[in-house]
Amino acid sequence: MASIPSPGPDWAQIPLPFWPYRIQMYALIILVGIVVAAMWTSRRLTKRGAEPGVVLDILLCAVPLGIVGARLYHVVTHPKDFFYPGANIFNPFQPGSIWAIWEGGGAIFGALIGGAIGVLIGCRWTGLRFWTFADALAPGLLLAQAIGRFGNYFNQELFGLPTDLPWGLQIDAGNKAIPVGLPDGTLFQPLFLYEMIWNVIGVFVIVWLQRRFTLQWGKVFAVYLIWYGAGRSYLESIRIDPSEFTLLGIPSNVWAAFGAVVLGLIIFFVQSNRHPGLEPSPYRPGREWVNPDAEVDSDDTDLEDEDAADADGVPAGSASAKATSPTNG
């Protein structure tokens, strides 16, 4: 039967020579996604006139808070995995700890909330407009999420309901997300792959819409929220291990995806009405960054004009200078 094989448990960790610990493949892939998003965001900000490298100042706040938010959201929506008799939830060196992020368990919606708080702090620190940074980040963030789904593949997580499709995903027996009673060899919907494809398409859609309509003031990020929330709402509805919390029979993660779509629509229409024009600067008033290279170029031009004036005895560019120039006879 045609199917997609999953990597074995040995692929989930990378051993290091002369070191008792191992690098988690999931963490390494997430790091690659962060680097890619940071580089692209930095390039987009620099084109807008922001200081080169300012993205690093903001990521110093956004990345740690994003990780914390992702973990806390997962813990809150999966309490049975952490809160049980004899659990060591506060000991980071014990299995089942809420701090043991290397065991897996992180929610993108929590990462967005925590990361947004970090971006707000970083933008206050650097003087950048929050919406300018959010717009610059949007396509890179979606691409980073697509890359990060490779980590779910190596961890054999984020898969959907059983299927007989030729691209069904093989999952090792004993995976705690597999419902009891399913026969051995059951294939599952590869949700990680579906989301990767959806995210990559979304990157092209976001970039095209921004160029076509010159979207600013947070409207690019609004499109990101709408696109990602719409796709994620469907994928979460066919996920085999949804959140333990439901409302009206709908898992909490589906509601969170609906919330992302609604929030994106609100941001888009509110910002369109409040700011029909273009942003005057990527910085808030009074916090503008002055390019020192531009100042040097201006000073060099002034020096050249002074040298020309000293040589001819008249100010460069004056009517007298033009009258005595060779080109004017």
Strand percentage lies at under 5%
Cα-to-Cα separation, first versus last residue: 89 Å
Overall 3D shape? globular
Class from helix and strand fractions: mainly alpha
Helix-strand string: EEHHHHEEEHHEEHHH
Major beta-sheet overview: 3 strands, antiparallel
Number of helical segments with 4 or more residues? 9
Descriptive account of the structure:
The termini are far apart. This protein has helices spanning 25-48, 54-77, 108-126, 130-155, 191-213, 219-237, 252-274, 292-312, 319-323; strands spanning 13-15, 22-24, 162-163, 169-170, 187-188, 246-247, 250-251. Mean pLDDT is 83; it is low at 297-329. The radius of gyration is 27 Å and the shape is globular. A three-stranded antiparallel sheet has the order 3-5-4, with no helix packed on it. α1 (25-48) packs across α2 and α6 (219-237) runs antiparallel to α7. It has two domains: 9-274, no CATH class; 292-328, no CATH class. The longest helix has 26 residues, at 130-155. 56% of the residues lie in helices and 5% in strands. It is mainly alpha-helical and 329 residues long. It contains nine helices and seven strands.
